[in-house]
Design a protein that fits this description.
alpha/beta, disordered C terminus, Lysozyme-like, five-stranded mixed β-sheet, single chain, about 30% helix
């Protein structure tokens, strides 16, 4: 199992006091290519519900797929470094207290790359441990808002619960509303 090296984990430590993070929200770009810079430029063109322009990229971390940035590379954004709220979930608490991770790719059409899965699992595992976030609070964008994100081919339960690809967990409702169905570890 790949672990994030200690030196790299230290690079991801916030410069100031960490926010009171309670959630991790997983997204896909729904594009075949992308980078922190291209997503930042696209988000600068958006406006919030009050008509105010966005500050730029709404996510805290971006994971590349080899088309625009290296496959499996994890890059933090200014929102993480400055411990700013996100602009990714479309729901107040999930933006204010949710760490937004986006993977480049359209997971309605294709699976994430193997390198992306290794990277997101490692990042989620580290963030869960560092900020004491329960697996039930690692959610897909579609768990908090009506959207297809992060896509039908994204193995959310495998990432959230650290299950091997052969195991399965079926979510029975939105996070916090109930427990999960039994799963087969055989």
């Amino acid at each position: 199992m790949l672990q994030i090296p200690a030196a790299q984990r230290n690079l991801w430590k916030p410069k100031g006091t960490a926010r009171d993070w309670k959630h991790i929200v997983i997204h896909h770009t729904a594009t075949s290519r992308g980078s922190v810079e291209s997503i930042h430029e696209a988000h600068l063109k958006r406006k919030d519900n009050s008509g105010n322009p966005w500050l730029g990229i709404g996510y805290h971390f971006v994971i590349g797929n080899g088309n625009g940035m290296p496959d499996g590379e994890i890059e933090q954004t200014f929102r993480w470094r400055q411990q700013m709220h996100g602009a990714h979930a479309g729901v107040g608490d999930y933006n204010q207290r949710g760490i937004g991770i986006v993977l480049v790719g359209n997971f309605e059409k294709e699976h994430p790359t193997a390198a992306q899965l290794v990277a997101v699992k490692s990042l989620v595992r580290m963030l869960k441990a560092e900020y004491r976030i329960d697996a039930e609070h690692v959610v897909g964008h579609s768990d908090v808002k009506a959207t297809a994100c992060p896509g039908k081919y994204f193995p959310l339960d495998e990432v959230s619960f650290g299950l091997p690809a052969s195991g399965f967990v079926r979510r029975t409702s939105r996070p916090g509303e109930s427990t999960f169905a039994d799963f087969n570890r055989n």
